[in-house]
Amino acid sequence: MENNYPKYVTREVMYALAEKLNLPEPDEFSQDWQYEVANTSRIDEFLFFYENGQLECDEKFVLMIVVISSFNDLLSEKEMEFTIWEQIRRNLVRDSEIHMNTILYWSRLEEEVEDSWEITPYMREVLNLVNLQ
Fold it and tell me: Superkingdom of this entry's organism (predicted)?
């Protein structure tokens, strides 16, 4: 079965989410906007909007990357919030078809866990859960 869900962040979605969430708009050279706007203090807000906003599939795809990047930054600061992770995990598993490329990217299967991002072990957990379904 072919995955027809978004695989790339588009400029249109960046501008739409920037407006909806009062984020900085991407400039003409923005390539990693979804990582640049990550913000550990706004994870709850991002998750609330993910769950309650009227979002298109491609908007959910990009917003979840922002959430994951924000959570990875939080883990890098050595501040773990299990309730936040449980909420992220629940959304990733529920919408796994939308986020499979993102889950695989952050799982870094070709790398040892200790050579990866802080969030990699958590994303591998999600990958295992999704593969069990």
Answer: Bacteria
- Structurally, the chain folds into a number of domains equal to 1
Mean pLDDT by groups of 10 residues along the chain of 133 residues: 71 95 89 94 97 95 98 87 92 96 94 91 95 73
Residue 121 counted as domain residue: yes
Q: Which structural domain, as residue segments, surrounds residue 89?
A: 11-132
Distance CA 120, CA 103 (A): 9
Q: What is the DSSP string of 36-98?
A: HT--GGGHHHHHHHHHHS---HHHHHHHHHHHHHHHHHHHHTT---HHHHHHHHHHHHHTHHH
How far apart CA 114 and CA 82 sit, in angstroms, is 21
Q: CA 94, 100, 104, 106: dihedral to nearest 10 degrees?
A: -60
What does the block give as tokens for 42?
């706004």
pTM: 0.92
**pLDDT value for 2:** 54
**Residue 61 falls inside a structural domain:** yes
